[in-house]
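Predict the 3D structure for this chain.
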Amino acid sequence: MNRQSGWQQDGTGAHAAHQGVDTVTEQAPAGRPVDDSPRRALLDVRAEVGKAVVGQDAAVTGLLIALLANGHVLLEGVPGVAKTLLIRTLSAALSLDTKRVQFTPDLMPGDVTGSLIYESRTSEFTFREGPVFTNILLADEINRTPPKTQASLLEAMEERQVSVDGVSRALPDPFIVAATQNPVEYEGTYPLPEAQLDRFLLKLVLPLPGRDDEIEVIRRHSEGFDPRNLGGAGVRAVAGASDLAAARRAVGRVAIAPEVIAYIVDLVRATRAAPSFQLGVSPRGATALLTTARAWAWLSGRNFVTPDDVKTLAMPALRHRVAMRPEAQMDGVGVDEVLGGILAVVPVPR
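Done. Predicted structure below.
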């Protein structure tokens, strides 16, 4: 993968070509030069992930946008499309800590957040941190655990802290949850409630690779690629938490015109009036679309948001925040299809 590759989320009906760092530069006020090193570092991360993960460029970009916007990601894809490898490689390239939890029906909340342990030597209870105390938590098959355990993540996702026995403990910064779920197998699963789905900034769909990408995957394995040995694949840390912090500050300075803000609101309000939806997007969804469009504009080398940025992020930012009417589902209508229709009819500001 090279630095010229773009964002393409399959099934969204939206595409934005990413212009490379050599052709687009952020404009500085009053003639002052802009420090472009954080953006270059994050674009280098995309190239580094490509050394291990093939054919999932959109998901890599989506995860970077989530990190820039300090939000969580729901990854949906059939088994074997490199969801776990993607998170591990991204963490290695960013020099961030990551932990993986396999969500099962018998998983308890304390297994995720941590719990108090009695120490016989001191006759006192001490807190033993759970896997949630990390930078990127991979919640594998999150819909296979009961609602009580799913709910244990809500405070961590919203407040970036864990409360046990009346004591609140801050999580590391950065902290995001990357949760996976299988879109095909529903037996023995517990669908995520709307309140928890709304906490995810983006829902990224990981498709099966195309023929050429699949040939490349098999070729790499035939030459000895080991997904458990990222160093052997040449993956190295090319950015760190300080680069991410600087990038977040830069994203916060990206301008957005009142007309573009109104466009975001019009899109969100249109979902609430769509006949196929029984639940439209909440104001939190509008905020998510704003922050992710800002992050994408910054990654693209601009210090302002365009309507195309909003259209590009509309699908991944909104698709999990709506609920279909049963009759629409019976007619075979999909969420992305309805959202695509909304994007086609809502007037775009000039």
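Confidence is low (pLDDT under 50) at residues 1-6, 10-33.
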